[in-house]
Recover the amino acids of this structure.
């Protein structure tokens, strides 16, 4: 599959929800498939906290495929032989789009804490501008999971005429304190790590050495993506060193898993971006600007597909169900649909159990 | 109520499960009420991870009462006008009993990493020796929650003729990866904190300044004590600064709660003890030394009361239920009883919702 990775540079100011302005800014994005003549076959994919524009395919010089490669590609549920698929790195992130370690054009130094707080609404606004620039004013669908689901929901409310169908997976309409608490561990661990230097670290050095605070925070993240039952299945009480039960630093399987993933993560993600994006997740509330959630949902014209996963504790099924129930109340029955997927993978399911919802998405896209 | 705080010094070696020896060692304990003439009215209370011997009453010079003061005292469920109640600080802890920052008598320096790994079995063995020394060879009951429940279970198996009744609250027969994972965050954050100095910190300095790694770890602990629903009820999405939603470091109520408790904790708990006690919790498995859990439970002669709390995610009700079901299978029906308490307080319920199980314990003790 052909992957085009591009970066668009915007010189017009981006007016943010906070009242602040981002100017100029870049958005890095990828596209898969071909846009048809009447520009009507586009699907916009929105990514999660640590995701990127690289949603599908494999680069020539790497063997790691895109984060939703199982779902997107030729002949797959999101069929790139039929659809033109686009995925952009959100502003605030660290994979090419403007974020806190990008250069502030006013000072020619990284923004760091001068970077404005970004919201989910800001993320979709910036991506909408990218779509407009590409001449895409109508979408077949928007599809996203977790923070990507928040973007999909926000876009459905903010741009009612943009997409025919909107798919929201493993997400919520407002982040609950449980998720905020896990993010708090990460924020505290990063901020208080001496190597973080109060934000004045050298990004290259941090990536080479691995920031402990970011690793500790990522461990919290990985716990929040699972559940007691999913951990039982995944790890049990397997002990890596059978001779070492009475060694203080002996390791259970789950401990090795957390260590490996946490310290690997520090090689490819930036701590300031982690602070800014978790902040965006924490303050996400679809009803902001409306009297309540019901009023916000009334704005939606797209067909809304809500997909939740039974063992997801970060964004529980009842959170998606609440949106669905309100959609059913304020719109025609056929304007929304709800799928609760049986899964023991927790929040991770939206990334790893694609076989459980790909047919649902495929049918919805082709129906 | 009269509180006697004492420290017993033992010069005989304590043979540990690991094969190592602790010699000599101290055990700090408190007693409430009076031991009757035939020494038959004693109740042994076992404490949780961060608990201490100070289970009940208020010291003359402090206004903070013991951690189970609502349950234990004159006229309370564990009635000190009727029972002689004893609670000892576990070895490995930091409130007077020998632990990793105690002086190693061989070198006259703190043990630090030279301290042996302690297990739940070791903890109860040491406390059993204390009881023997006090001339207490029969108990009316053993009562403990969380890690205290592990001790109660282990004592029931190891000393079948010791207690008439054993109460296990909010606990498990073997720690699951979910709990181990939360402990891992704490261990990693402590170990990697430069101020921890690889265990060679000055304990007084650490307490005065507050070790960030311990605070971050405690945040993880506090999350594990709650649940998504209990956090909704306790905090909601209340924001401490209504003017500051777009400030990067603005605070949700849950964030303030975690910060306050975490940094307060560092003033009174020791990081090396935290490493050693979480290790003991991680490797707890009641069936160790037996073919399986059923075989271990067969050893029990006491009546076993299992109390779980519906929203407890750290040690879920099904873990207590599993013990109960096996007890029902291998013993007479009346040798075990199970109570599942309706609660939205998560694991914390065993400390904060005493009114929901005090009558149950009172009746069982007096029945």
């Amino acid at each position: 599959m052909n992957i085009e990775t591009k970066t668009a540079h915007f010189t017009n100011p981006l007016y943010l929800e906070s009242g602040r302005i981002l100017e100029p800014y870049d958005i890095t994005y990828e596209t898969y498939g071909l846009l048809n003549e009447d520009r009507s076959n586009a699907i916009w994919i929105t990514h999660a906290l640590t995701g990127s524009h690289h949603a599908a395919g494999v680069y020539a010089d790497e063997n790691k495929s895109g984060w939703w490669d199982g779902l997107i590609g030729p002949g797959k549920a999101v069929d790139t032989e039929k659809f033109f698929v686009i995925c952009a790195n959100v502003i605030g992130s660290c994979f090419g789009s403007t974020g806190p370690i990008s250069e502030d054009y006013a000072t020619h130094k990284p923004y760091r804490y001068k970077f404005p707080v970004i919201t989910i609404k800001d993320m979709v606004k910036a991506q909408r501008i990218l779509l407009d620039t590409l001449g895409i004013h109508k979408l077949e669908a928007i599809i996203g999971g977790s923070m990507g689901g928040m973007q999909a929901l926000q876009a459905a409310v903010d741009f009612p005429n943009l997409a025919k169908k909107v798919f929201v997976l493993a997400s919520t309409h407002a982040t609950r304190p449980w998720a905020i608490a896990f993010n708090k561990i990460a924020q505290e661990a990063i901020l208080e790590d001496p190597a973080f230097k109060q934000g004045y670290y050298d990004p290259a050095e941090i990536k080479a050495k691995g920031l402990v605070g970011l690793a500790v925070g990522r461990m919290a993240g990985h716990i929040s993506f699972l559940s007691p039952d999913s951990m039982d299945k995944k790890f049990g009480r397997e002990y890596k060193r059978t001779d070492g039960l009475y060694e203080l630093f002996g390791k259970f399987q789950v401990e090795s898993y957390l260590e490996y993933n946490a310290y690997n993560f520090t090689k490819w993600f930036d701590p300031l971006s982690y602070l800014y994006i978790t902040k965006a997740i924490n303050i996400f509330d679809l009803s902001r600007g409306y009297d309540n959630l019901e009023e916000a949902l009334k704005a939606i014209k797209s067909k809304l597909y809500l997909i939740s996963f039974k063992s997801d504790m970060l964004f529980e099924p009842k959170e998606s169900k609440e949106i669905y129930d309100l959609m059913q109340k304020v719109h025609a029955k056929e304007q929304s649909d709800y799928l609760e997927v049986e899964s023991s993978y927790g929040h991770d399911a939206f990334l790893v159990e694609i076989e459980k919802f790909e047919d649902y998405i495929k049918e919805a896209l082709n129906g």
Summary: The mean pLDDT of chain A is 96. The first strand of chain A starts at residue 4 and ends at 10. The two ends of chain A are 25 Å apart (CA to CA).
